[in-house]
Amino acid sequence: MVEKRGSHGILAHAIMLLGVFIVAFPLYLAFVASTHTAQDIVQAPMPLLPGTHMLESYKSALFGNASSAGSKAPVAHMMWVSLVSALVIAIGKITISLLSAFAIVYFRFPFKKLVFWMVFVTLMLPVEVRILPTYKVLSDLKLLDTYAGLTVPLIASATATFLFRQFFMTVPDELTEASRMDGASPMRFFIDVLLPLSKTSIAALFVIQFIYGWNQYLWPLLATTSEDMYPVVVGIKRMIAGGDGQNEWNVVMATAILAMLPPALVVVLMQKWFVKGLVDTEK
Fold first, then answer.
1. How far apart are CA 267 and CA 255, in angstroms?
2. DSSP code of 126?
3. What is the percent of the chain with per-residue pLDDT over 70, rounded to a whole number?
4. Between helices 75-106 and 112-121, what is the axis angle to 10°?
5. In this predicted structure, what is the pLDDT of residue 239?
6. Most buried of 48, 227, 228, 239 (most Cβ within 10 A)?
7. Which run of H or of E encompasses 175?
8. CA pair distance 279, 276, nearest whole angstrom
């Protein structure tokens, strides 16, 4: 039986299409700009159809063959730096948060609630607030322009700890008692019981934290001075030197398109797990 949608259905689809157009049009312009020469882009009006210089633009971006006044670091290496940083931040945040939440929920020690709230209060101290002392510590430890310097200050996550704590508190006590009766150690209970139950939550947090790590700008901007350690988000800014005539905007736009691909790929490949992690507990 076909349901009649009427004018409300048509209006809803029109609004959704308009929203898609508003979001997608800047991306389309960036792609079109990456297929033209720098001279074509700065002319008015800018071309709205793809050009014939796509391969040259992306090759110049990936291998650092641009002739602009800004940074000429190869984007392929910058994307590798961003990938390593994002993976270390995501995996590190999830690992530390799982262990800290496990300790807070299943172990008895003095001032346990106080410790938890001290961890939670760190949400009021983002990187921007503690950036100067963090930079001073890294500088003293000679960790500037290193992968450790890019990732270690961003690994701790009170939000992920809170989410895993809330999830562990919903695990039935019968599972804990059964594991204890079977002689399982705390870590065996953690690995064999809690981790399988948490896989969808882990997947959802991985997507969020990977995008968070990939899009980091302020901290890498301070922690890196060498082109060899630029993540791609910082690299885009470094490629822009001054006026339009000094920049190869086709290469900059090609870099922006390349920078969007890995996070988009992670979201697409893990979309099913991401949604389940947000709406399911799977216990």
1. 20
2. -
3. 90
4. 150
5. 84
6. 239
7. helix 173-181
8. 5
| pLDDT at residue number 87 | 95
Q: Extract the tokens encoding 56.
A: 């040259």
Q: Classify the C-alpha dihedral 118-121-127-130 as positive or negative.
A: negative
Measured distance CA(116)–CA(161) in Å, rounded: 9
Lowest mean pLDDT: which of 46-50, 65-69, 149-153?
65-69
Confidence tier at 46 by pLDDT (50, 70, 90): confident
CB within 8 Å of 159: residues ≥ 6 apart:
123
Count of all residues that appear for the chain in the document:
283
Superfamily name and number for 75-279: MetI-like (1.10.3720.10)
- Tokens for 119, please give them: 């961890």
Q: What DSSP string runs through 1-64?
A: -PPP-HHHHHHHHHHHHHHHHHHHHHHHHHHHHTTS-HHHHHSSSPP-S--S-HHHHHHHHHHT
Residue type, position 81, single letter: V
Residue 159: CB atoms within 10 A of its CB come to: 15
> Residue 248: phi, psi to the nearest 5?
-95, 90
Distances 44 to 48, 64, 261 between C-alpha atoms, Å = 11, 28, 29
Helix (H) or strand (E) holding 227: none
> CA-CA distance, 211 to 83, in Å (whole number)?
10
Amino acid identity at 250: N
How far is residue 136 from each of residues 62, 63, 154, 155, measured CA to CA in Å? 33, 34, 15, 18
Task: Say if residues 171 and 283 touch (Cβ distance below 8 Å).
Answer: yes
The pair of structure tokens assigned to 59 is 């090759």
